[in-house]
Amino acid sequence: MNLRNLSLLLFIAMLAGCATTPPMSVTKQEQHELGPVAGALFIPQNSLLVTVTPTNAGATGLLGALVAAGIDAARRSSAESTATPILEQLHGYDFRAVMKQASNGAVGTLQTIKFVAPLDVETVNSSTQKRIVFDNAAASAVLFVDVGYQLQSGNLYVSANVVMYPKADNLLQFRRKPNDSDPLDAGNAIYRKTFNYGKLNVVATDIKQDLTEGANNIASQLTADLNHPI
Questions:
Q1: What is the DSSP string of 140-184?
Q2: Sign of the torsion angle spanned by Cα atoms 119, 122, 126, 130
Q3: Is 125 left (phi over 0), alpha (psi -120 to 50) or beta?
Q4: What is the CATH number of domain 3-48+83-227?
Q5: Which of 203, 202, 128, 130 is nearest to 161 (CA)?
Q6: Angle of helix 207-227 versus helix 95-107 axis, rounded to 10
Q7: Phi/psi at 141 (nearest 5 deg)?
Q8: Cα three-residue angle 134-139-145, rounded to 5 degrees
Q9: I need a surface site. Which of 141, 148, 187, 208 has the fewest CB within 10 A?
Q10: How far apart are CA 59 and CA 175, in angstroms?
Q11: Burial class for 166, CB neighbours closer than 10 Å (0-12, 13-18, 19+)
Q12: What is the pLDDT of residues 80-136, one digit of tens each?
């Protein structure tokens, strides 16, 4: 494995490790009990985020942290300048629409789990908005897909944190740590996974294709995972 691919794998592993709760797969019993599912894509970000890998201040205390922050600010400014040709290529490109189309095309191929309606995009990612979506859903369970995408140090990363909460009475038995006072409490989830896509050293001429590929890849990962319960 070359150094470039190793760097990509390490960054994706770091993204997966950011989750505060362990992943959960749908079990065969849960899949059997699932009726129609409602779903929503949460994509608050309306443009490609340009970031840099944070500088490690080490054990140099507050002064070191301030120096590192100054270095990172300068690096971000430089990264944004370098990324200008890439961002210019994205004028008129709607990642939200692309992700929505990819997701609905993919979930339409699910063999057992069926959705009551196509997934729509919510542009405000908040607990209140999710509660509204959950309360209004006429389904046995609700699937939330939080999507982020960024250009970090010249590499493209797309990620999706996916959680499913039960609504139907026959599914409540599968909650790990039931909390009836808050239906969206982490312990009420019956499915939780993070999916990542990465592309090294992207260039302006390929950025639309790379983002579209990322959206399709994430959607395919999700449906493949839901199609194969444990």
A1: SEEEEEEEEEEEETTEEEEEEEEEEEE-SGGGGGG-SS--TT-TT
A2: negative
A3: beta
A4: 3.30.160
A5: 130
A6: 30
A7: -155, 160
A8: 50
A9: 187
A10: 42
A11: buried
A12: 667 899 999 999 999 999 999 999 999 999 999 999 999 999 999 999 999 999 999
Is the overall model pTM greater than 0.85, yes or no?
no
First to last CA, the chain: 31
| Chain CA centroid to CA 191, Å | 14
List all residues 6 or more positions away from 108 whose beta carbon is below 8 Å from its beta carbon.
none
CB atoms within 10 A of CB 50: 20
Nearest to 201 by CA among 135, 168, 157, 149: 157
The pLDDT tens digits for 14-51 are: 554 444 578 999 999 999 999 999 999 999 999 999 88
Tokens of residue 206, six digits? 């390929």
List the alpha helices (DSSP H) in 95-154: 95-107, 127-136
Close Cβ partners of 169 (under 8 Å, ≥ 6 residues apart)? none
Largest CA distance in the chain: 57
Q: What is the pLDDT of residues 143-159, one digit of tens each?
A: 999 999 999 988 999 99
61 Rama class: left (phi>0) / alpha (psi -120 to 50) / beta: left
Between strands 141-152 and 191-199, the pairing is unpaired
Q: Identify the band that residue 3 occupies on the pLDDT scale cut at 50, 70 and 90.
A: very low
